[in-house]
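Researcher: Go.
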Amino acid sequence: MSDRLLKNRELLFYSTLAVSCAVAFLPFARETGPSNFLIYALLPMILVFVNRSKFESIPLPRNLDLVIGVALIPSSFAFNWLFGSVTGDWAYGLTDYTILVVGIFAFYYPISEKIVQLGLVLLILLRLLTIGLSHVYSSGFVVVSDFIVGIVVAFSKILISSDITSGMIPGEIFVGGAAGSTPIFIGWACVGLEELVLISVILYILIDSFHLHRTATILWFAIGVIGSFLVNILRMVILIWVAFSRGIGDMLWVHTHIGDVLFLVWIAIFWWIFLGFASRGRRIDKASSLEERDSLVE
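Model: Structure:
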């Protein structure tokens, strides 16, 4: 039984994390979509994937590890209840889900292992970092929002209408058209900085696992991060176009779905191009090593 679990542990681990994103469909998690949860679940998935040999050699969790893992999973909901009792905000959020992911990680891999501890610490630190960024964004709202609004308005003027302008209030955009005089606000959730931070870490771990030249790794990492940022700008421009041409009601519907679609399309295109480059580089390296071996034989 234990041998079978050990053999299928990785697949079960991935499946459990993927299924855990369905917590977004619970009534008290309605403000957070499954894609927001998935980006947190991806980090431990990627860590296990790129370090497969190391994680395969790790034994199954012992009784104490299982107790900790099992205890952490419901503590995610307990933390949500406690936080809601104090603040009045009962919506299940990303901090709650991070605790759930940590519990799932500890359930499948013993936390006494250093590589598991590293993954758990990285996950927690990233969540704390994104919380800090949200506070920085709020305290420095004028600077950050004006920067984002400036980019979005500039593209919108070129692609949609020259009548689109930024408002007097930070984060405000006046669209006009079918939207009338109703302004659109770009808040923390719309900026995509939290997702960008997590995507950046995931991209670097994946790209670095190919052991490319350091310059190539940095170049592809930069392309991935900048591309992800521009895709989010494109998302906001599309939303403004929908509001301008169809009205706020249609924009809100598109807002619910378009982010996930654009993100998946961008990631698919990026990895298709990157994997082609990486596989070509490996073929060249292999051919060079064969030529070098043949020359030594001669």
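Model: Residues 141-298 form one domain.
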